[in-house]
Specification:
- There is one protein chain.
- Helix content is 0%, strand content 51%.
- With 176 residues, it is mostly beta strands.
- It has a single domain, classed as YVTN repeat-like/Quinoprotein amine dehydrogenase (Methylamine Dehydrogenase, Chain H, 7 Propeller), CATH 2.130.10.
- The model has no long low-confidence stretch (mean pLDDT 92).
Length: 176
């Protein structure tokens, strides 16, 4: 029988609930929280390597793009923030802030086949497709009838599909 076994436990530097984790490298783990922090932690030692903070707002789900060396995170202030994990200053601001949603950005995901493209979903019931080279969304999809919680890319052969889900209890698939 296959079972999961706890092999390690890290103390979180966050003061409120965690909303997402990103583990792009064997030695570093990133986490977002309701306290507005994006934290980089050593997996081996548990020490905090770096933090980025937005005041008075929650950081929701985040996504990492290795090709661009960026972490994108949604937030409760309707914005998407891009952080460069190579920055070593503590508590610095995001490198890029994008605003087009009108409610909490609940999730952001980079397209695994095109590092310039990412999607965001929001409590404003919309899906937005973005290109890093622009501060405006490429497109907005308004087919959901309630808050959106998550999105995920699927790529097979030459087809790229974005799946979205939310409070309307529907999974929708969008071909790109």
């Amino acid at each position: 029988m296959n079972t999961l076994q706890t092999v390690n436990k890290l103390k979180s530097p966050h003061s409120q609930q965690l909303n997402s984790i990103i583990w792009p490298h064997s030695s570093i783990l990133y986490s977002t929280s309701n306290d507005g922090l994006l934290c980089a932690q050593s997996v081996e030692k548990g020490s905090v390597l770096n933090t980025w903070q937005i005041k008075y707002h929650t950081l929701t789900k985040a996504s990492y793009c290795g090709a661009q060396n960026l972490i994108a995170a949604g937030s409760s202030d309707c914005k998407i923030r891009m952080f460069d994990p190579r920055m070593n200053e503590e508590n610095h601001e995001a490198q890029l802030i994008l605003k087009s949603h009108t409610n909490t950005v609940s999730s952001v995901k980079f397209n695994p086949s095109n590092s310039q493209i990412f999607a965001s979903v929001s409590f404003d019931n919309t899906v937005k497709l973005w290109d890093l080279r622009s501060t405006l969304p490429l497109s907005t999809i308004t087919q959901h009838t309630a808050q959106l919680f998550d999105c995920e890319w699927f790529i097979q052969n030459d087809e790229t599909i974005l799946a979205t889900c939310g409070a309307d209890k529907e999974l929708r698939f969008h071909r790109w």
